[in-house]
Every structure is written in C-alpha cells, then in structure tokens.
Amino acid sequence: LLQPAVSVGNVGQLAIDLVISTLDMTKVGYFYTDCLVPMVGNNPYATAEENSVELSINAEVYSLPSKKLVVLQIRSPFIKNKYRPFCQTLLSWVKSSKCARVILLSSSHAYQRDDEQLLGTPLRYLLTPDLEKAVGGLMQELNWKEMEKVAAYPGINDTEKVLYVPGGGITKLLFTESCSKGIQMAVLLKFCSEGDNIPDAFALVNYLNEWLQLIKNEVNTSSQWKIPSSWRLLFGNGLPPALF
C-alpha cells in the first residue's frame, strides 16, 4: 500500500499523483472516513473529454495487480482532532486487507531542521522494526539517510532523543502506531518549504523509484513521469507545455 501524508507542501500527494498517472492505475473504490474534509471534483487524471466529467472524492483507492500495488490518494485535509481515529481505521483496513507493506510519502518543514539534518540530501527514510529486518540492508546499499532523532529538550538535555517531524501531519502518529502493531511500514520524506512544490514531488517519487523500481530508471529526471492533467491548474500554470 502506497499513500501520502497530508503534510507541508502536499508533496506526498503530488508524488502519488505522478505514480497513479504514470502507471495508469485503475480506480477500484474509495476509503470512507469522516476524518477528512468532504470534497468532490472532476477526474484529476482525465485523458480525454469523455472521462473528464467523472467525479473524484477525498480518499480514493487505485490498484495495479501486475505490480502488487495499491495506492490510497488523499485529497483533503484532516478535520481537527481526527488524526488518531483515521490512523486506527486505516491500520485496521491494512490488516484486514492483508497488505504486506505500507509506504507513506511525507514531507517536513525545511526551516525546522537541526544542524545534523542540514547536512547532505534533503531526503530521509524511516522503517518500522519489522520492515527493518527485511529491507534495512538494501537501504544501506542505496546509501539512504535515516531520519535523525532530535534532542527532546535542546540546550537542556541533549542526550534524550525523539522522533520529530514538524509539518508532517499524521506521519509520526501513523509510524509509531505501526511500530507497536507490528506493521511493516516505511516513511519516505523530503524537507521542503511551502510554495511551488512540484520539484519536491519529483524528487520524492524518484527517491521511491530507487527502491521499488516502479518505472525503468534510466535517467533520474522528471521527464519519465506522466504529469496528470489536473496539474495545469497548479501554481499559476507555471509548468512548461512540453511536460503535458
């Protein structure tokens, strides 16, 4: 199961858009919850006038059996105080659906990094203990950087470290709940700032592709991903026409 966190810059959701659009995934249903702000809109992945009038809602499920991949796309923010009920419902669904692994695409405020997090790549990962046993070695081979823990009380007690994902939405809660429930979960995230976050989405989906090889990775560029038609309306239509 691949899904976004509703986090800073909506980077995870944009990256999920690229996966669904590029792999031409089939919508197989929706995820019913009262934890998200209700919304309805036209088909964000329309390819012709005929399918442009199809409706989409706040949480939909897409499938690609050939790659044993299911994607949950979330398109609206959470209602206040509904993070925990959503995480409980989601993880119950993950268990009942027998999802082998969950990958959460997220982001975190770049301006709240500590000194160690300023070094090197802005991309990070987290693995639950159950998934660490299976793929931890591969992450080392890929030379990925694990998300650093930060001091719980900076300047007072720098020895006690905690996981801190500012701007990450449900990321920390969903990850810690998965750890306690024995669910194999990976979090892939990018430090970023609000603005035109399309480059961040490309960076995050390329990061994901290094691991899962969803598409042939000849060159690590944005041109290998199919831009969904709905992106024409993003950020003042700043995307070059060649990308469509």
From TrEMBL:
It is found in: Nucleus. Pfam families: PAC2. Transmembrane segments: none annotated. One of its GO terms (biological process) is proteasome assembly. SUPFAM superfamilies: Cgl1923-like. Keywords: Chaperone, Nucleus, Phosphoprotein. The keyword RNA-binding does not apply. GO terms for cellular component: cytosol; nucleus. The keyword Iron does not apply. Belongs to the PSMG2 family. Forms a heterodimer with PSMG1. The PSMG1-PSMG2 heterodimer interacts directly with the PSMA5 and PSMA7 proteasome alpha subunits. Chaperone protein which promotes assembly of the 20S proteasome as part of a heterodimer with PSMG1. The PSMG1-PSMG2 heterodimer binds to the PSMA5 and PSMA7 proteasome subunits, promotes assembly of the proteasome alpha subunits into the heteroheptameric alpha ring and prevents alpha ring dimerization. This is Proteasome assembly chaperone 2. It comes from Himantopus himantopus (Black-winged stilt).
